[in-house]
Design a protein that fits this description.
elongated, alpha+beta, 6 helices, 2 domains, 4-stranded antiparallel beta sheet
């Protein structure tokens, strides 16, 4: 460009968004010439970055542990009394599907939260999100109650315990994403 008579006022410099050089037009006006980086840096938390993967793993572990405590310990006897559950040996053989289900739920939980995180206090935001997710699960237990011979008290306990768990999960993901709001 110099060979064509373009006058630059400085050497090229690197900025967050790309390389910049300032030149003068025919009338002495300054212009910025910007060569944008091929990979424009996205706001953290919007892609599968390290924070997302860590949060996914943490939520998966919490989801699995919470599910084992709630459904495998606290409610197990009540489930077995309904006669609707598989024998424990069959359940154990299918545990890989249970792990897959929890892996998918944890990933979706983190992904949805990360897309909507705001610059507000993290705990309140996480609890609100956990309650919203619980509101998605509550109708499932109501439907089970309607179509299966599930005792009413069992449905109430499922809703109560899983609501507590989603509140804990919401607080955990909010803690991991604190300071990342828009």
């Amino acid at each position: 460009m110099r060979a064509e008579g373009v006058r630059f006022t400085e050497e090229p410099r690197d900025e967050e968004y790309g390389t910049v050089v300032v030149f003068l037009d025919l009338y002495g006006n300054k212009w910025d010439l910007v060569d944008r980086k091929r990979k424009i840096r996205r706001r953290e938390g919007t892609t599968m970055d390290k924070r997302f993967l860590v949060a996914w793993l943490v939520l998966f572990v919490l989801y699995m542990a919470g599910g084992i405590v709630i459904h495998g310990v606290l409610l197990n006897d009540e489930y077995m009394a309904t006669g609707l559950m598989r024998p424990e040996a069959q359940q154990q053989k299918m545990m890989h599907l249970m792990a897959l289900a929890h892996l998918l739920m944890a990933g979706a939980f983190v992904w949805i939260y990360a897309r909507g995180v705001e610059s507000k206090p993290w705990l309140g935001q996480g609890l609100r999100f956990g309650l919203a997710v619980a509101a998605l699960f509550m109708p499932i237990y109501i439907i089970y109650y309607v179509v299966q011979p599930t005792p009413g008290i069992l449905a109430v306990k499922q809703i109560a315990f899983d609501t507590i768990m989603t509140l804990v999960l919401g607080a955990a993901v909010a803690f991991l994403y604190r300071g990342q709001g828009r």
